[in-house]
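Thread: quick sanity check before group meeting

JM: Hey all, I'm pulling together slides for Thursday and realized we never actually wrote out the predicted structure for the chain we discussed last week. Dropping the sequence here so it's in one place. If anyone has concerns about the input, flag it before I start.
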Amino acid sequence: MVDVVCIGAHPDDVEIGMGATVAGMVRQGMTVAIVDLTNGEPTPYGTPETRAGESAEAARILGVERRTLTMPNRYLFDSIENRTELAEVLRDLRPRLLFAPYPTDAHPDHIAASAIAVGARFYAKFTKTDMAGEPHYPARLYHYVAVHLALQVKPSFIVAATDEDVVVKLDSLRAYRSQFEANERNASIIATMELRARYWGGLVNAPAGEPFFSAEEIGVRSVRDLV
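JM (edit): ok, ran it. Output follows.
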């Protein structure tokens, strides 16, 4: 069992969208698992073996468990089979919180991953089913932003991050050498991620931050919890 599951279409999606938040949750004693729906390959400078090693190193830096599922990169679709595969993982890990990609994007895999996560969350609670594991329904589903569109978004909330959290996020991204260091087209992404984290943090008077979105209303137990 874990407290949180973060779903990505590809290895590095979660690190890009919410790596500082993951680092903060781990620092606070929460157990976190990243579930990549695909292995992210092929890419121009990667191989399945290289990407597996990079994603394992990123997970080590973040201090999380990582699972990579069998869905096909570039051809990811919201299907019964894919919902079921993810639902069985959720029934095994039994998280209270679920994070998934933002549903609007230029990358079809990201759009599909968002829909698969929503469907799998519901499928995971089924009874009278051939799925492995006992029924489980994550209490909350939130979306993070790791998109290929220049979106101006209005988040439901921003998670404040420390300087230490940002360092861990950036180090986890540097683990993906085949995606960033080896690919000059992506060489500026890590620096851009730091700038964006500083921007979002500045909006809530914190060193850094990351935006999140909820289709459901959000409650707080005390106003003292508000930044």
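AS: nice. The radius of gyration is 17 Å. Helices lie at 13-27, 48-62, 80-93, 108-123, 163-174, 189-203.
JM: adding both to the slides.
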